[in-house]
Amino acid sequence: MRFKFTFFLLAINLTTYGLITYLSHQSKQVEPSTGSLSRQIGRELIDADRIELHGRGIETPRILERKGSTWHLIEPMRWAANYFAINRILNQLQFLEEEVSFSVGEIEKTGQSLADYGLKNPLLKIIIAEGDESISLSIGTLTEIGNNVYLLGPDERKIFVVNRQAIDGLLIDLNDLRTREIFDIPVFEVDALGLQIRSENTADGSSLKVRLALNNGAWSFEAPLAAKADPALVDSTINTLTAAKVRRFIETEQTDLILQGLVTPSMQITIYGNKRRQTLIVGNLDPSSQGAPEYFAKLEDNPAIFTVLARPFDALREAQEALRERNFMNFDPSMLTAINISENDQMIRLQKLETGKNDWQVLESKGGNEIQPYRADPAIMDSLIKDLSSLRAKGFTADAPSISDIENFGFNNPRRIVTLNFSKGDPLTLMLANPENSKDALYAKTNLADFIFTVERNATLRMIPLNSSNYRNRILDILPAAARISALKLTNLRDGKAIFDYRLGQERIIWNDLFAEFDTKHAEHIRVLLGAIRRFEVKRYLLDSYTEAYSFDAEKSLPWLFQLSATIQLPGGETDRTETREYVFTDRISGTVQVAGSKQYNTTFEIPQPLLDALYELTEDMEIPPEMKGAPVLKPSPIEPVSAPAKI
């Protein structure tokens, strides 16, 4: 009983499956006697995975196959089809409308045949297929009236008259049917790039193999060496390669793999994607190319030969160096705790203070003698850290230097050693050196790798001077906001006379009121001096000491010619506290240089341009021309003419 019931259920399932299959097949059948032409072929077009174009209207048959959503040309050559050209064919067929139609039986009754309408050997025969099922359309001759053509329908029992323009759209040139794109791996999918470049300088024609891979979001070289790659340049290179286009397809009868250099190619480029890869083989230059040079090329698994522009591929010959990461001092500035700069027995130490701010101090030692620490200038420290982190290699001198190479490049006696210490992680040490016989080159290496780089000599050495004064805070003195300048005096030290001497006296008097009453002419320049007293800035430190004259060089010293003195009232307690500030100045050395000194701060320095200009206006004794004073102008004595030379 159970066996009979099981057999009964099986019979029902088989019957149901057969019925579904039959109905599905019937839904695809075309009723020849009903429906327009577009209705008869519309369903087949939607599901079509193969289109064939034959006939005397085209030179060679064309076969197109769909894989997924992508169409490929199979005949007369294997190549990806032009998306827009395929859509044009499908749209023309889908919206094909007849002007009139009649059956084949009707023309046979009049003694005519398909040959009379050009349908025995059609101009174009289109086969539309899905799997093993297909329909065909045949295009015949032009009608005698109107710009129309005859078309034999899919059942081959009915002839339609359709507009010629719709049919002309199906006769697409082979060059337009092929896409010009070479690589179909999208940029976002690329995770590796391989290059095999044949060397032209070796007798055996050996090849350089270069491979770059994307690991943890960063590009790096895996061959011929392990090194970081420049992410922007690698991305740009991959964009250029994936955007490369076919310039010209080479017809089959014109192909010669040996002459075109595709048997022993000059270059092979492999792009790796998600579990797939594509390799482009690049051969010799095309001697017939017009304009920009072109190479013969082909894909590794495709016999089609074509040409490509030479320029993007020529740039790859230097990929080993061109795509290298040139920023070799990458570090996190927020983790820095100290920077030590040394040469021989001289060292400058820059230490970050534990204030929670970006505050640094500078110390210098010479021969074991420590010098008093100074606050470092925030702007200069920011510039130093930025310059160090962005230090770039101008060239790659040696990737695996020997001990003798390191000595020959001068690293046994380096010009600078810069050590960066961090709150976490190992120190980073930069060494700069040059050979004894070369004063133009400067080489760099770090403790992170054996590579030796070439860097810009002058710019790099200027970036890290071995002079503690360079890093010292340019704000020499700054008064509290509540401080009041009660007196200001500028003295000419040559004769001891005051150029001006102003005192406010009462607390309610302000400097603007005093200028309005006594000295409106020089008010602007005196305000600059008041501003300097309140916030004294240094252009450049010269000496960490003060002397009674500035030694300009070994043979010349400049005396202090002017003294700026200020009396300052500082509120505090029951009475104000009084302090003084004094600065001395040499004469102006040039339009932008004037030296000053402070005995209080034991330093000598150059002053900034606004203070220099203000002092010049207040101290310069120019002789006023008599015309400006209204004095009579003395007439020069007449010059007696020179007698003519005697004749020889």
Rg over CA atoms: 45 Å
How many runs of DSSP E, i.e. beta strands? 39
Shape label: elongated
Enter the CATH topology name of the largest domain.
Dna Ligase, domain 1
Short structural description:
This protein is of the alpha+beta class. It is elongated.
Mind sketching the topology for me?
Blueprint: H1 2-28, H2 37-47, E1 50-54, E2 62-67, E3 70-75, E4 79-80, H3 83-94, E5 98-103, H4 104-109, E6 124-130, E7 133-142, E8 148-152, E9 158-163, H5 164-168, H6 174-177, E10 192-198, E11 207-215, E12 218-223, E13 227-228, H7 231-242, E14 248-250, E15 267-272, E16 277-285, E17 294-299, E18 305-309, H8 311-314, H9 319-322, E19 336-343, E20 346-352, E21 360-366, E22 369-370, E23 374-375, H10 378-389, E24 395-398, H11 403-408, E25 416-422, E26 428-433, E27 443-446, E28 452-454, H12 457-463, H13 468-471, E29 475-478, E30 484-492, E31 497-503, H14 511-518, H15 523-534, E32 535-537, E33 540-543, E34 549-551, E35 557-559, E36 562-570, E37 577-585, E38 595-598, E39 603-606, H16 609-619, H17 626-629
Antiparallel strand pairs: 1-2, 1-6, 2-3, 3-4, 5-9, 6-7, 7-8, 8-9, 10-11, 10-15, 11-12, 12-13, 14-18, 15-16, 16-17, 17-18, 19-20, 19-25, 20-21, 21-22, 21-23, 24-28, 25-26, 26-27, 27-28, 29-32, 30-31, 30-36, 33-39, 34-35, 36-37, 37-38, 38-39
Helix pairs in contact: 15-16
Any key phrases for this structure?
9-stranded antiparallel sheet, 10-stranded antiparallel sheet, Immunoglobulin-like, alpha+beta, Dna Ligase, domain 1, 648 residues, 17 helices
Structure notes:
This protein is of the alpha+beta class. It folds into four domains: 30-177, Dna Ligase, domain 1, CATH 3.30.1490; 187-322; 333-471, Immunoglobulin-like (Sandwich), CATH 2.60.40; 475-622, Sandwich (Immunoglobulin-like), CATH 2.60.40. Helices cover 23% and strands 33% of the residues. Strands 19, 20, 21, 22, 23, 24, 25, 26, 27 and 28 form a ten-stranded antiparallel β-sheet that branches. Strand 38 (595-598) and strand 39 (603-606) form a beta hairpin. Helix 15 crosses helix 16. Residues 22-34 have low confidence and may be disordered.
